[in-house]
Amino acid sequence: MSWKFNPFTQKLDYITSSTILVSTTAPLNSVDGQLYINSVTDTMYVYYAGTWQELHTLVNPLQGPDGEGLLGPGGENLHPPSSDD
User: Fold this and answer.
1) How far is CA 56 from the centre of its chain?
2) Which of 13, 20, 38, 77 places its Cα 20 to 30 Å from the Cα of 1?
3) What's the whole-number average pLDDT of the chain?
4) All residues at 6 or more sequence positions from 82 whose CB lies less than 8 Å from its CB, including other chains
5) Does 37 map to a domain?
6) 19: how many CB neighbours lie within 10 A of its CB?
7) Within the chain, what is the greatest distance between any pair of CA atoms?
8) Domain total in the chain
């Protein structure tokens, strides 16, 4: 449990848990600054001013732009940088 700065309210919030809820639906009885991740859409939300605000859609870091894995079975990079990068 600790105090954390809330950039939305410009105040310190008392945090009782460092775990972010992962759920298919938004939690009920939420408080400003509360976070949750929608496991269906892979989107992170923050509760502020009585509503859930979308923060960011999470991306699987082990998945390439074509939906294929970034690493092969031997750990080789399946998507090496192009010569244009």
Assistant:
1) 6
2) 38
3) 75
4) none
5) yes
6) 6
7) 52
8) 1
pLDDT over 60 (residue 1): no
Which tens digit of pLDDT belongs to each residue from 19-57?
788 899 999 999 898 888 888 888 889 999 999 999 877
Question: CA dist 19 to 34, 44, 72, Å?
Answer: 11, 13, 32
Report the pLDDT value the prediction gives residue 81, as an integer from 0 to 100.
Answer: 60
Q: Does residue 65 belong to any structural domain of this protein?
A: no
Q: Is residue 33 part of a domain?
A: yes
Rounded (10°) CA dihedral 27, 32, 35, 38: 40
Type and span of the H or E element at 55: strand 51-57
Beta bridge partners of 51: 48
**Which structural domain range is residue 44 located in?**
2-57
Q: What was the pLDDT predicted at 67?
A: 57
Helix, strand or coil, per DSSP, at residue 67: coil
